[in-house]
Amino acid sequence: MTAALRHRGPDDEGMYLNNASDVHVGLGHRRLRIIDLSERGRQPIWNEDHTICMVFNGEIYNHQDLRSKLEFRGHRFFSNTDCEAVVHLYEEQGIDGFRDLVGMFAFAIWDEKKSLLALCRDRVGIKPLLYFVDSSSLIFASEIKSILQDPDFIKVIDWNSVGLYLSLNYIPHPHTIFKGLQKLEPGHTFTYHNGKTEIHQYWNLEDNSPEMNAYSHYIPEIETRLYSTLEEAVKMRMVADVPVGAFLSGGIDSSIIVGLMARNSGNPVKTYSIGYTDVPMFDETNYAREVALFNHTDHHEIKLNARTMIDSIPDVLEMLDEPFADSSVISAFIVSQETAKNVKVALTGDGGDELFAGYRMYQGESMYAWYRKIPSGIRKKILEPMGRMLPDSRYRVYLEHLRRVKKFLRGAGNDSFEDRFFAWNEIFSRDIRMNLLEHQVIDHDAAKNIFGEALKERNYDRINHMLYADFKISLPGDMLRKVDATSMSHSLEARVPMLDHRFCELAFSIGGALKLRRGQGKYILTKTFQDIIPKSLHHRPKWGFEVPIGQWLKGDLRYLIDEYLDEGRIASQGLFQTEMILSLKRLFMNGTTDLSWHMWNLIVFQYWYERYCGNS
Q: Which is nearest to 343 in space by CA: 483, 258, 243?
């Protein structure tokens, strides 16, 4: 199991095995040396009398403060690592002490006196943790590929999870692709004692209306608190005993992080950006270069072409032990690969979109109020039918705008808030999913219901309702999954300052009208940090690490469609309805409908299935 995780920690390994008692225990760890590079930092790590043992993944950023308090209470530390503080904190307070941790983490603690195993995952879900329980055992790990090494785990596909994957491009927690295997939800602990399990939520965002709204007299106070809280989060995440750098996309979020790093570093910050030589529409290196010059960073540009991407595809697909079809995983994989050649830690700007309304669908919901003023007959009989006829290619500027109009109208055609939100998130429509999986009995409304419940869970305004749903579901399931998988595949630790839980709590105390103002997302975030980012970025729309996957699938990557969506192969597998696959392929190749994400979704699933289940 630990060998399967070597990429997460190539520097060292350690194990604890105890078969002497009625409860047989095995803990394994792969180490990536970041804090305390000596042998004393080897895991599993113990308390003073060797009755409490822990394996840990991640970083505790307030470990020095915790250490001082714990030493004052008489605890003796063996190492200078951040994670040893967790062991002594558990000694002092039990699992309740985990609320004091600031950081990203997934860990397991074995309490030998109590014969109790405790699992814990950080508040936002930056670090992964999976577990499987049956009548006689508990198996846990950071990745599915490690779980699969245990011969007691039997692989059985969960077809409801396949339906979720086709809906969203990823499988949200607590679900996984295999029956019985669960993702521990962010902000939760899991205990196993005498064959009994208990799950407890130790953190969530407050359930109340945002305190700070659009009234102008709040703005200076909000700006002061946002700036100081995020700057402190950045400074905490710059501490390491190894070189530290940053991903720089040229967007608002990563530019703010780089700006704060530059102001708190004695040396030029190492920054890394990605661009495309043959698809200029997707190339953002000019913006990233401007940010780098503005902050005097040691800047590195990674220019890709179709051939580079083709060469990386097998490695990207091999990395994924669960179907995951966010195509930006390709560029994230490559930028992590290049960054890891120079540093072992990289700060990212992830989280800003889910905290401050950076995605276009938030603007869509804001525009919906105006759209509703158009007479119903015009909307239903003219605009929405016309919208369905629009082309939606992504590879010309004017076509991209038409695609956005078409997507807006698709969601705006729903009177229900929940239906609109899901329509803007959905990949395969319900009808297509039903046809593709006609041989399986599954809940085709599962993904919609997951988001629907989250949208109703808090007493927020409309924009913060949407942000909360994305923060709880899409962020850990998609964005953070991508960041962790691609960075750790290259033994690179990615740190996410905007997802410091205190900054998140502050963000959700701010009303949606200050986040999305006059059609501009991230209004208050940009205003707060406008002096540390170039003016050209102040009103720049969201883009991110996009890749022109559809264009490549019709060109140099066409072989992936021919191989993995071959009619004979689909028919012999019996997983998907063959005629529906052929119909989708024809529509994609005709070019009137942008089905690039759909094609990539199916290719990723097919590759995963043959890699993990083909011989089952």
A: 243
The region that residue 522 occupies, defined by phi over 0 for left and psi between -120 and 50 for alpha, beta otherwise, is left
CA 99, CA 280: separation in Å to the nearest integer? 46
Q: Is the confidence at residue 314, as pLDDT, over 80?
A: yes
Whether the model clears a pTM of 0.85, i.e. scores above it, the answer is yes
Question: DSSP letter string over 234-287?
Answer: HHHHT--SS-EEEE--SSHHHHHHHHHHHHT-SSPPEEEEEEESS-GGG--HHH
266 vs 565: CA distance, rounded Å: 53
Per-residue pLDDT tens over the stretch 80-106:
999 999 999 999 999 999 999 999 999
pLDDT at 448 over 80: yes
Interacting residues of 609 by C-beta distance below 8 A, sequence separation 6+: 573, 575
First to last CA, the chain: 20
What pLDDT score was predicted for residue 415? 81
- CB 361 within 8 Å of CB 425: yes
Q: Which of 336, 345, 486, 265 is nearest to 34 (CA)?
A: 345
Distance CA 512, CA 516 (A): 6
Structure confidence by residue, pLDDT tens digits, 479-527? 999 999 999 999 999 999 999 999 999 999 999 999 998 888 999 999 9
Domains of the chain listed by start with CATH number = 3-201 (3.60.20.10), 216-351+494-537 (3.40.50.620), 548-616 (no CATH)
- Indicate the SS3 state at residue 43: coil
CA atoms within 13 A on the CB side of 375: 4
Q: At what angle do helices 84-93 and 63-72 cross, to 10 degrees?
A: 50
**pLDDT tens column, 357-405:** 998 888 888 877 777 778 777 877 787 777 666 666 665 665 666 667 7
Reported as type and span, the H/E element at residue 514 is helix 512-515
3-state secondary structure of 195: coil
Instruction: Let me know: does 458 contact 468? Beta carbons within 8 Å.
Output: yes
Q: How far is CA 487 from the centre of its chain?
A: 12
How many degrees, rounded to 5, is the angle at CA 11 between CA 10 and CA 14?
A: 95
**What is residue 382's predicted lDDT score, i.e. its pLDDT?**
80
Please state at what angle helix 306-319 crosses helix 329-339, rounded to 10 degrees. 90
